[in-house]
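During the no-cost extension, the postdoctoral fellow (Dr. R.K.) reprocessed legacy sequence entries with the updated structure-token encoder. One reprocessed record is reproduced below for audit purposes.
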Amino acid sequence: MAKSNNNIAMYLNFVLLLSLLLIINMAESRLFQFGHAKAKTLTPTCVTIYGAEEGDTCFGITQAFNLTSDFFSQINPNLNCDQMFVGQWICVDGFLS
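Re-encoded structure tokens follow.
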């Protein structure tokens, strides 16, 4: 009977130790962000701007200035193509740093 209690106590100590290690591991990973590195955010810098005119669309501007849709979106991160207005400044040349 005493040997059985000793085995149960040893098993419970082992489970508690593993639980403690798991909790510490979870806390460390949240604290130091191991394995969850954030990608560096690139900041757009505009070199040339264009004033939107009547009838302009984002697609039309990308075609006129020979830009890819992805690059156009990156250098104009706050542009809402559905609400573009006449005179709005649109970046048509720039870089990301």
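The helical segments are 2-32, 58-64, 69-75. The mean pLDDT is 86. The remaining legacy entries will be reprocessed before the final report is submitted.
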